[in-house]
Design goal:
The protein is of the alpha+beta class. The protein has a single domain (3-139), classed as Heat Shock Protein 90, CATH 3.30.565.10. Helices cover 33% and strands 28% of the residues. The chain has helices spanning 13-29, 34-54, 111-118; strands at 3-10, 63-71, 76-83, 121-126, 132-139. A 5-stranded antiparallel sheet has the order 1-2-3-5-4, covered by helices on one side.
Length: 140
Amino acid sequence: MITDLASNFYANPGSLRVVSEWLTEQCGILAVNPKLSNRISVCFNETVANLIEHNQSLSESSVLSLRVSCKPADSVLEVQVIDTGTPFNPFVMSASPLPSTLDEARIGGVGLLLIKKLTSACEYYTTSSLQNILSMTFSY
């Protein structure tokens, strides 16, 4: 049996907190392992925070969507973040070199690396109806 869940929310920090709590609650209902639930939450929050901060075509009243699809038979959970802002594929960017010391470290620039490390697969695409979809797959 496949379970599909969805929620819409505004592109602002207050809404991010509320929908993040909803996502964590849904993971609990789906009996998702707490460690996996934490990985999902980190990736979701990083994705939406980047959208809110960097996509200038989105306002605080822009609506974003979250889709969660759980396929227990395949041991896969897929999380999609959907927006209608300016298309931008974050995975075509070349990764910044990681600092070799804490003194060289700067705030920012490691979110995509974190998402890639915490997911089984990531995909970005834009639909014909101009929806941007970042799909993150988690195997368990």
